[in-house]
């Protein structure tokens, strides 16, 4: 659980240090701007920017598209940000929290835990193009 938050905590710590240095040098405006920028990066790279984790067994039973992801994955983040509101049309399984999800990814990705891996009715797609997936999720029930 703690490794999920390591990167966001690192951004907060670095942001606080940089902001404190700026404030000590007399640039309060610079401190605020840099502090907010690092805080924004922490939020973007945290699990908060993803839909709530659904266990793999529940996601498979729901019959919706499934996106297997993990925190800190830049490709997962890119996919999530490009899907915007359509992300809610899929079940999101964090493979670091769900061993069954990690096993499902290894099964379709040649033994590797390559994410994002998306399961649609037509099969598995490893690291799909976000624009293509948006059109696929547009037809999925919410």
Ordered list of secondary-structure elements with their pairings:
Elements: H1 6-24, H2 28-44, H3 56-62, E1 66-69, H4 74-83, E2 91-94, H5 99-108, E3 117-120, E4 123-126, H6 130-138
Parallel strand pairs: 1-2
Antiparallel strand pairs: 1-3, 3-4
Helix pairs in contact: 1-2, 4-6
Order of strands, main sheet, comes to 2-1-3-4
**Whole-angstrom Rg:** 18 Å
- Along the chain, the helix and strand elements come as HHHEHEHEEH
For this structure, the CATH topology of the largest domain is Glutaredoxin
Question: Alpha-carbon distance between the termini?
Answer: 29 Å
Number of helical runs?
A: 6
Helix content: 40-55%
Count of folded domains = 2
Q: CATH homologous superfamily of the largest domain?
A: Glutaredoxin
- CATH class membership of the largest domain: Alpha Beta
Q: Which stretches are low in confidence, meaning pLDDT under 50 for 5 or more residues running?
A: none
Instruction: List the quaternary state of the chains.
Output: single chain
Coarse structural class: alpha+beta
User: How many beta-strand segments?
Assistant: 4
Shape: elongated
Mean pLDDT: 89
The main β sheet shows up as: 4 strands, mixed
CATH architecture of the largest domain: 3-Layer(aba) Sandwich
Strand percent estimate: 5-15%
């Amino acid at each position: 659980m703690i490794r999920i938050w390591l990167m966001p905590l690192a951004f907060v710590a670095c942001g606080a240090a940089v902001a404190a240095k700026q404030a000590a040098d007399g640039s309060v405006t610079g401190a605020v701007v840099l502090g907010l920028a690092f805080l924004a990066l922490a939020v973007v790279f945290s699990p908060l920017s993803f839909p709530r984790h659904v266990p793999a067994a529940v996601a498979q039973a729901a019959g919706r598209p499934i996106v297997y992801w993990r925190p800190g994955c830049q490709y997962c983040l890119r996919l999530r940000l490009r899907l915007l509101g359509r992300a809610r049309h899929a079940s999101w399984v964090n493979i670091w929290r769900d061993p069954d999800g990690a096993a499902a990814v290894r099964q379709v990705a040649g033994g590797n835990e390559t994410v994002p891996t998306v399961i649609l009715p037509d099969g598995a797609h490893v690291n799909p193009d976000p624009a293509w997936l948006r059109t696929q999720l547009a037809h999925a029930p919410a």
